[in-house]
Write a structure and sequence with these properties.
Layout lengths: L1 E4 L24 E5 L2 E4 L13 H19 L4 H12 L3 E2 L3 E3 L2 E7 L7 E5 L7 E4 L10 E8 L5 E8 L5 E7 L4 E2 L4 E4 L5 E2 L6 E5 L17 E5 L9 E4 L8 E6 L5 E7 L5 E7 L8 E4 L6 E7 L2 E6 L7 E6 L2 E9 L5 E8 L2 E8 L2 E8 L4 E5 L6 E4 L8 E7 L6 E6 L5 E6 L9 E9 L5 E9 L10 E4 L14 H8 L3 E5 L9 H5 L7 H16 L8 E6 L1 H12 L6 E5 L18 H4 L5 H10 L1 H4 L9 E6 L8 H13 L6 E6 L10 H19 L9
Parallel strand pairs: 36-37, 36-38, 38-39, 39-40, 40-41
Antiparallel strand pairs: 1-2, 2-3, 4-6, 5-6, 6-7, 7-8, 9-10, 10-11, 11-12, 11-13, 14-15, 15-16, 16-17, 18-19, 19-20, 20-21, 22-23, 23-24, 24-25, 26-27, 27-28, 28-29, 30-31, 31-32, 32-33, 34-35, 35-37
Length: 705
């Protein structure tokens, strides 16, 4: 790719026929040449880090002033927020886990900005606070971003992130004394800590410190794997592995339960991955390749002495469990074969395995013995999402959490000797689940592929095409959308609105073939699936185009951006959140280069052609009447840098013809989503639903302009 910048003159553009007075956004004359295609980028300057660029920060402030001025005039906004807050205010628990002889769990008393980590000696003993991130900052923007334990229960490593950034600092606590060591391990990202069982040290991945002022936009390359010993400074750490010839590769460490092996997963972004190991019983820590190609996905499950177990999609798009004998790693032994359902996770526990599957986007759990023979199932409370099932290979108990669209989370203990379950905790939320209907329907996409969709709404709904409806989607990176509980969704449905979730291609609901059908040059399948879901909702009179809103975040933000530029006539409101909007320049920032394995590489001529066809930032056409839109992002998002959303919003305001609002809401001191304080989440949800109701159902209430 060659690039050239024309004379830097700025044009002040005021959108035509808009009742809102949008900020003037200067247009530059930057043009890049991609394989003979001239790619204009008039808002390149909005890629600058908002925290260090005064002109970008001023632009954000001006945009927020317009956006919040609009939102403040929506009469039902406070009513919606109050109801969300009421529903959110319930005790929340996550499934406990055991380290040595002590139990730990996360909990939130209702409206705490961050979850608190508790510890207890038995399931019925009085819990003690181990970590309370709510004490780390007044506004809740400093969060816990990772946790690791030595198996002997002596040490705990915990990650701290600020303002939602992916960067984390690792601290170490002596669990016997409750005091932190002086250690501080910096510049870690996309990595946990993998402890040796005796607490002698842990492995972690890190990058070099970024240049001053560029930590949130600089490309993340040359990740390295290091070893840290408690009680020492980071400059004493031991380098375990690097690969200077492949700067975009990253390394995820895991130590086997017996402490014998360090398992290294080498990734280039998403799946697939390579696998190596180190025999830690030897003085010379030599990295030995085990799977030396990127043909498939491999996830380490556990080991029995020199026998290693992996969940893989090799020759099995829906996943299976296999084993390697390190003495002869050329032989792959199948232990649990591929099933009709999709294998999403597996635990080596209870001297066997607990396998978590998805069947039509809902959870089920099966138990197998060590040789892969089916023992039976763990009967879940219903159709929904189960998570947990962790533990050591010889544990006789495990725990899981279960919820669905209308079932608040419950925590269960499973006795692995008897398979009996005990309900430990059940959330009490201020609503009646019996007031709602949840259905799963199947519809045809453009190429006649059948796609499932969940529909959720209050009983008594009349299908006359007038119902405000929110259609949510993701469709990427092999990530499934499954039924889980959300107090914000209940608020939306209580108000007589429909909530729909489309399980479109690109996701992980039906295995690798379903995912693969929505990648690279096949990405248009994802947008077609989502558009077909919208058309089905209209055809079946759940809603109408003017009453249909669409929403998605991150890759789902790209989904919304692509669909609204391809079919602006089909939607009544659009909510692209933290989206990848400039598909030509996404590899130029932070971890964007890892997504070329999903989208394709714009530097490749053939792959560029497919990307160029749908890139939302470049598909906006001047003079088009776009649906009411509220773009959302945050100033410390270093996953999908906010420049994507800034540029898209600026270009949208410039291209848009009509009176519909096209706004951008920028959260300060927040990131891509992880670690966002409860108060921010509630505010954002209230603003989102208020914007939707004001534009999907203006007959109810329309803000003054």
């Amino acid at each position: 790719m060659t690039s050239f910048i024309l004379l830097t003159c700025f044009l002040l553009v005021q959108p035509a026929q808009s009742n809102l007075d949008y900020p003037d956004t200067p247009r530059g004359s930057t043009v890049d040449d991609y394989h003979g295609t001239a790619v204009a980028d008039p808002y390149r300057w909005l890629e600058e880090d908002v925290r260090t660029s005064d002109r970008v920060s001023d632009w954000v402030d001006a945009q927020n002033e317009v956006t919040f001025g609009y939102l403040n005039e929506i009469p039902q906004r406070n009513e919606i927020r109050d109801r969300i807050e009421t529903l959110w205010d319930y005790e929340k628990y996550r499934a406990p886990f055991k380290v040595d002889d002590r139990y730990y769990y996360y909990a939130n008393d209702g409206l705490q900005n961050q979850y608190v980590l508790y510890g207890m000696d038995s399931l019925d003993s009085e819990p003690e606070i181990v970590l309370d991130p709510n004490t780390w900052s007044d506004d809740g923007t400093v969060a816990l971003s990772g946790l690791g334990f030595s198996q002997d229960g002596q040490y705990m490593s915990y990650g701290i992130s600020k303002a939602g950034s992916d960067w984390k600092s690792w601290k170490i606590r002596d669990l016997e004394t409750g005091a932190d060591l002086s250690d501080s391990v910096e510049w870690s990202k996309f990595s946990g800590t993998a402890w040796r069982p005796d607490g002698s040290g842990f492995f972690y991945a890190r990058y070099e410190a970024p240049k001053d002022g560029e930590g949130l936009i600089e490309v993340n390359e040359n990740q390295e794997l290091w070893y840290h010993v408690p009680g020492t400074s980071q400059d004493k750490d031991v380098l375990v592995h690097r690969d200077s010839d492949n700067p975009t590769w990253g390394f995820s460490p895991t130590v086997s339960e017996d402490g014998r092996y360090l398992i290294i997963s080498t990734w280039r972004g998403g799946e697939p991955n390579k696998v190596s190991y180190v025999d830690l019983s030897k003085d010379d820590w030599t990295v030995v390749p085990l799977i030396d190609n990127f043909d498939n996905a491999w996830s380490f499950v556990g080991n029995d002495a020199g026998y290693l177990y992996f969940n893989t999609n090799m020759d099995s798009p829906r996943g299976r469990l296999v084993g390697f004998d390190i003495a002869d790693p050329t032989v792959v032994r199948e232990i649990i074969p591929e099933q009709e359902s999709t294998l999403r996770g597996i635990s080596h526990i209870g001297n066997g395995f607990v396998a978590q599957y998805l069947k039509n986007a809902s959870s089920k759990a099966l138990r197998y013995d060590i040789d892969g023979r089916l023992i039976g199932s763990i009967d879940l409370p219903g159709i929904g999402t189960a998570s947990g099932f962790g533990g050591r290979h010889d544990d006789d108990e495990t725990f899981y959490s279960f919820s669905s669209f209308t079932t608040p989370p419950s925590i269960y203990r499973v006795d692995l000797k008897t398979n009996e379950q005990t309900l430990l905790r059940q959330a009490e939320v201020d609503f009646n689940p019996d007031d709602f209907v949840v259905n799963q329907v199947w519809y045809q996409s453009a190429d006649e592929t059948l796609v499932p969709m969940f529909l959720c709404y209050k009983k008594g709904l009349v299908r006359d095409g007038s119902n405000p409806t929110l259609l949510y989607g993701y469709g990427g990176f092999n990530i499934p959308l499954t039924p889980y509980f959300s107090p914000t969704r209940i608020t939306w449905m209580e108000r007589g609105n429909v909530y729909a979730v489309a399980n479109i291609r690109g996701g992980g609901e039906f295995g690798e073939s379903w995912h693969d059908a929505g990648t690279f040059s096949r990405k248009q399948n994802v947008f077609n699936d989502f558009i077909a879901a919208a058309e089905w909702l209209v055809e079946n009179k759940y809603t109408s185009p003017e009453n249909l809103g669409i929403q998605g975040g991150s890759n789902g933000g790209l989904l919304v951006g692509a669909c609204m530029t391809q079919r602006p006539d089909l939607f009544g409101a659009c909510l692209p959140a933290v989206g990848v909007m400039d598909m030509v320049r996404f590899p130029e920032f932070t971890i964007g280069h890892a997504w070329t394995k999903e989208y394709g590489d714009p530097k490749d001529p053939e792959q560029f052609k497919a990307i160029w066809e749908y890139s939302p930032y470049h598909r906006l056409e001047s003079g088009t009447s776009y649906p009411p839109t509220m773009v959302t992002t945050a100033d410390t998002d270093d996953r999908v840098v906010p420049g994507h959303s800034f540029k898209f919003a600026a270009a949208l305001q410039n291209a848009h013809k009509g009176e519909a609002p096209v706004l951008i809401r920028v959260e300060r001191s927040a990131g891509h989503g992880a670690g966002k304080p409860t108060s921010m989440r509630i505010d954002e949800a209230a603003d989102t639903y208020a914007f939707l109701e004001a534009n999907l159902s203006p007959q109810r209430s329309t803000p003054s302009q």
